[in-house]
Amino acid sequence: MAAENKAAATPPPAGIYVPVPTFFAARASAAYDPVAMPLDLDAQGAHAVYLARAGIRGLVVLGSTGEAIFLHASERAHVLSAVRAALDAAGFPDYPIVAGTATQNIAETVEQLRAARDAGAQWGLCLAPGYFAAATSQEGIVRWFTAVADQSPIPVLVYVVGSFPAASSQSIPRPLR
After folding, report:
1. CATH numbers and ranges of domains, the chain
2. pTM for this one?
């Protein structure tokens, strides 16, 4: 992990974690714009609190269900910050948030991990660079994740997606930092 956080990486607490969709303004909203849909951060926060109160152990925000690839970096930060603020205000100050950081290059993934940490997430969910998986050896995938983990300010979780069989057909042979 990055020099600013050399503490041993810890996994999220055991329990059920759910992927959270990203909420956008409703059509009836004055803020609605069908071309550039604004986020509905109030609904985002309320949904997170609802899940926490219902007994869900943690949230996966901005994963492949969260439409993160369609959001600007500042919008991703707003979503994570809104979730963290709502949970804190509702009495869940240490509630686990895993932030999706699925990009295809190391530098951008690390940028997203830093932004996720700054917005209140404790873990980052990283996807293997799947478009190059067929041409990448298992060692190359390990090196990619290791490079990300070495620079990340928060622990990194490997996101295995079935649609990238070359990247996910074998397990990573050692835990990441």
Report:
1. 17-126+149-157 (3.20.20.70)
2. 0.84
